[in-house]
Amino acid sequence: MRKGGDRNRNSRWDDDPVLDARGRPKVAAITERDVERIFAPLARYRYLPADYLHALTEGSLDALTNRLNLLSRRPNLYVVRPQQQRDSAAANHRHLVYELGEKGARVLQQYGIDNQRTRTPASFAHELMVCQVMASFEIGARETGVRALTWSDILASEKLPEATRRAPKPHNIPVSITIDGQRISTHVAADAEPFGFERPISNRTFLCLGIEADCATEPVNASDFSRSSIYRKLALYLAIAADDIHTSHYGFPNFYLPFITTNGSRLVSVMKVLERMTNGTGSRFLLFKTLPLFTSFEKPLAPSGHMLTEDWRRVGYPPFNFLKS
User: Fold this and answer.
1) pTM over 0.90
2) Which terminus of the chain has a lower count of CB atoms within 10 Å, N or C?
3) Which of helix, strand or coil describes residue 89?
4) Same domain, 182 and 211
5) β-sheet bridge partners, residue 177
6) In what order do the strands lie in the sheet with 97-100?
7) Containing structural domain, residue 171
């Protein structure tokens, strides 16, 4: 019996079992609902808080939270709670973040759903931001009825050049740029796989080359182009547009690049750099928005489809909206 005589009270940070009335560990019987509500979303998005998992599906948040608690404890361990989330000062008062465990991945294989992750990301904060942004796009598409184009859809598109389809890493976009008189050949790989949306009423298709999630760990400006910086990223995306590389690589005539950073002051700094780089003309396709880091003292935004449904800021152009622009 646990300290204080409470059999059912567990720390949110350990994996001690949930006990039944006889003091025995509860064993979870996996259902299709577990696969649909928990395992499959965590195969699409490595890290998600419980409230995001709830927003992607239906039903009771309390019931989902209780189920996640059971599945993350011994002897079940179908999902895990990444310890990095404890870096937030408010970790004890926020929805827990979950990740698919090895047992959960094996269950998905039985359902024919592949989980191709092979290694843990270098930055938990960065990957969590990417997952929250992409989940918000999915939630928005479900709420509005807009058809979401996945990376698989783009790879199967008739528009996609065969050379790109057969490339070892088709999401890597080759690009060359001249800096200080020196021609540099490299490639661009965004923080998420390319995706898009089809608006049925206006018959418009929007292609996004992925997203750029900025956790404010890189310098905004850097004199050394070989060093990762916001300036370097913006310069490469501007070169893609100027040379029409997106069309030759993906077969789509237009593209957008959502750029998400941590707060308003950082956003202003990034947008000023773009304004300076373009001599004030800005960019039609570079879109800007903020999302607080999980370590921020700001109250986290409730999960919603706002990445799709709300306006994005631009430099030199009016705000952009995927549903209205």
Assistant:
1) yes
2) N
3) coil
4) yes
5) 184
6) 48-49, 97-100, 79-80
7) 124-309
